[in-house]
Design goal:
With about 90 residues, this protein is α/β, with parallel strands linked by helices. It is about 45% helix and about 15% strand. Keywords: Branched-chain amino acid catabolism, NAD, Oxidoreductase.
């Protein structure tokens, strides 16, 4: 019998928004063995995660193409709307 928890750790997790709240949450996923596919509007936030082994993408749409699960941690409704429905959004 395969442990579902072990299988879950092999499934990439998309993470959009690496700011005050998203940064420690995404780091915790990496710490516990989850492959993270990351995006943030600020490239300097992504550099740290690339150094930790995360895949960094150019847009939320790229995250959606590479991950079946996506966590967003964004500061406002307008940011969320843009990330989900914008020209390069998750729902593209």
């Amino acid at each position: 019998m395969v442990c579902s928890r072990a299988m879950a750790s092999k499934t990439p997790v998309g993470f959009i928004g690496l700011g005050n709240m998203g940064n420690p949450m995404a780091k915790n996923l990496i710490k516990h063995g989850y492959p993270v596919i990351a995006y943030d509007v600020f490239p300097e936030a992504c550099k740290e995660f690339q150094d930790l082994g995360a895949q960094v993408t150019d847009s939320p749409a790229d995250v959606a193409e590479r991950a079946d699960r996506i966590i967003t941690m964004l500061p406002s409704s307008s940011n969320s709307i843009e990330v989900y429905t914008g020209a390069n959004g998750i729902l593209k």
